[in-house]
Amino acid sequence: MEILHTFGIDPVLLIAQIINFGIILFVLRKFLYKPVMTMLQERRDEIKKSAEDAQTASKLLEEAHEKERKVLQTAQSEAKKMLEDARKQADGMINDAKEEARKETQKMINDAKEQLTSETKQAEKRLSIHISQLAIAMLAKSLPDLVTDDEKTVLIKEASKKLKGRLN
Amino acid sequence: MAAFAPEVLFHIGSFPITNTVLNTLLVDAGLIGGAYYIKKNIQKVPRLFQNIVEMVIQSFYDITETISGRNAVKIFPYFMSFFLFILLANWSNLIPGIGTFGFLEQGEHGETEIIPFLRGTTSDANTTFALAFFSLVATHILAIRAVGIGEYLSRYFSLNPIMLFVGILEIVSEVTKVVSLSFRLFGNIFAGEVVLHTVSSLFAFLVPIPFMLLEIIVGLVQALVFAMLTMVFMSILMTPHSSEH
Q1: Do the Cβ atoms of B14 and A10 come within 8 Å?
Q2: Per the domain annotation, does B127 fall within a domain?
Q3: Number of domain units in chain B
Q4: Domain that holds residue B83
Q5: How high is the ipTM of this complex?
Q6: For residue A20, which residues of chain B lie inside 8 Å, CB to CB?
Q7: Residue B144 DSSP code
Q8: Which of A14, A32, A36 sits opposite B126 (nearest CB)?
Q9: Model confidence over A70-85: pLDDT tens digits?
């Protein structure tokens, strides 16, 4: 044990150093490694999470863009369709209106024609009545010298009968 | 500076307070202060000091993990603590003034000698033996916990004569581990101290600077070697016999 003495080995100091290192180990483990490792782990988790979040967000954004595009497309096509429908409807309405106007006009023309015809007929009738009356009157005036009054009356009656018959 | 043994400054009761004990307390204060500072000020967004500490801890943990795999969690605190304690102890020896302030004492041959207040704790064989012993005991406790007492004992004792002989060799190697660990550290640091002391007593200016730089590297390397060896021993003993092949 001479060598131990030469190197200054003192059991008290030796034990003191062992205890000292035990304390150091305990303190470092509790106050240094544990919080630092926990913090590193936390930070790692957080970075991982935020990276994942960013990925999700970009995916969502893309989806939203896609949706927007679809909605816009639908709206566009719908608007196109509506416009077309409206145009068709308008065309139909115009055509209908034209047709109706044409019909109305035709009817009015027809009516006018009819009225004209009937009025002409009536005028003709009235005119013929008038003429026949005139004729009878002329007859009555021109006859006196040639025939008797009785014959006159008969003639006139005959004539007016014939006229009436023709008129009717 | 010729003596291996640390100089006793005074006694508290029967406990001798040597200059290496004071140095140990200084290193302790630095470590505990740093740890306490980190614990108090730990932030999600790290500042410079926290960043450095995190970087060191992370890279050491990664080294532990590559070597010892799933045992890394158990081994890492020992590895890191040995490294930090020894590194600070080694470097504390290089702080200017650490070996300069002290009592003046009459030597045996009548010359005055300085008994410094502080002396690097790793240049005291007590400290290095204590560390090596701690490392050994911790290694074996971890090994028993990891592989179970039966598996643990089967490494040293066997009915097979050849394996029994190997077991005896293993026991011898455990003893040599302590000796080699402690004397490697003690020898390197003590020698460095002596070199620095000698060189600065020859040329006080400029010439010691390269040696100081060398001692910084030696301090780092020795801390790393001690911690690494401890870690490797732990890793080996914590691996069951059967899975070694």
Answers
A1: no
A2: yes
A3: 1
A4: 8-244
A5: 0.87
A6: 24, 28, 130
A7: H
A8: A14
A9: 999 999 999 999 999 9
